[in-house]
Design a protein that fits this description.
This protein is an all-alpha fold and 192 residues long. The chain contains three helices and no strands. The protein has one domain. The protein is elongated.
Amino acid sequence: MKSNKKKPQRTKQLQKYNRETPSEIDALKKELEQTKEKLEERLHEEISTRADFIQLKKENKKIMNQNQALKKEQQHLKTTYQAMLRERQKLESQLRNEADLIHQIKQSKKELSENQAEFFDVLDSQKKLLEELNKERQAGFNTLRRKEDELYALKKERDYFKERYEKMMNTKMMKWTGKYWKIRKKIKLYSK
């Protein structure tokens, strides 16, 4: 049924075309040609536009990836910069401390040289006194050595007499011990 309906419509269209004059047909053909050309141009434009669009999408994606990489690199550089800034501040603080320390060392050296000069002045003024003290000290050492020698001699003599005394006491003890045992033996013999 559907095909039957289409046939009468087509025939009507054909009849309508047949009624038109050849000049109208030529005009319609030209118009159709122009429309085809415009359609082809638009089709080519749309194809080139789509190709450009796809190309732009790819470029946009590439640029986005580059942008992401640049953002990551920028973040990395920021953290590196912050770390370097902290390191710089630490180094500046150390430099300040070292400068203060160098200043203190210079001040201490200056005070030391002043004290040393004062010491040498005092030493020069007290030189005679020190020489006398040195002589007294040397005399004291000599006296001490003599006393030590005397003490050593007395100790030697004491050891000698102590040894003689011990020998003598041992001999007496042995004598007394011997007498004791003899007496005891005799007592035992008489008591039996």
